[in-house]
Design a protein that fits this description.
- By secondary structure, the protein is α/β, with parallel strands linked by helices.
- Helices cover about 30% and strands about 30% of the residues.
- It has a single domain, classed as Rossmann fold (3-Layer(aba) Sandwich), CATH 3.40.50.
- The strands form three sheets. Strands 1, 4, 5, 6, 7, 8, 9 and 10 form an eight-stranded mixed beta sheet that branches. It has a two-stranded antiparallel ribbon with strand order 2-3.
Length: about 210
């Protein structure tokens, strides 16, 4: 295993939709919808650690003690720009979640992440933060995003992506072994340009039709 806290979400619906997502003949609208649907399904697993409390309510028939989410709601932090494709699906399931944005781009020479934007909720340190990005390739963007959140005082973190490469998982394990990683698949590896193979191409370009 390339990360001590890796979870591969092998649910049949996720795997089926991921295959459609990978297909080069899948157009922009369908790609965007599939990414949203996979993200919604992934949200069930990524939110599994949320704590519950018991409250007394009254149904139309009687009074009962029932569970509800306890404490602060979570925060979903999108790595711009492609993370928006994951964010929307998760918000479909968790519409009350707070949202943060981190603008990072990959230097084409060094492949290192460069931050150009950061907007987080003021109380982000009191929330479970779920960092989302379609791809964990070199791992540099995810590592930079998680480091930024830790600097902001966040202690509960998870990272969710559609695809991961072994190289990115190893880099994440070295930098943030405490942060769980959830992905729909672990692919073969990276090519000379830092792209995941077999992968699905450039997720941002396919989401927004910019290529």
């Amino acid at each position: 295993m390339d990360h001590p806290r890796l979870t591969v979400l092998d649910h049949p619906l996720i795997q089926h939709k991921l295959t459609l997502l990978r297909d080069k003949t899948t157009g922009t609208a369908a790609f965007r919808q599939l990414a949203r649907e996979i993200s919604l399904l992934m949200a069930y697993e990524v939110t599994r650690p949320l704590p519950l409390e018991t409250v007394r309510i009254e149904t139309p028939l009687e009074v009962m003690d029932a569970p509800r989410l306890a404490g602060k709601k979570l925060c979903i932090v999108s790595i711009l720009r492609a993370g928006s494709g994951i964010l929307e699906g998760m918000l479909d399931l968790i519409p009350s979640a707070r949202v943060g944005h981190l603008g990072l781009y990959r230097d084409t020479v060094t492949l290192q992440a460069v931050e150009y934007y950061c907007k987080l909720p003021e109380d982000v340190a009191q929330r479970l933060a779920i960092v989302v990005d379609p791809m964990l390739a070199t791992g540099n963007s995810a590592i930079a995003a998680i480091s930024r959140l830790k600097q902001a005082g966040v202690t509960e973190l998870r990272f969710a992506c559609l695809l991961a490469a072994p190289e990115g998982l190893r880099a994440m394990a070295a930098a943030h072994p405490d942060v769980p990683v959830l992905t729909a698949a672990v692919d073969r590896g990276l090519d000379g340009h830092g792209y995941i193979r077999p992968g699905l191409g450039d997720a941002g370009d396919r989401l927004f039709g910019t290529k």
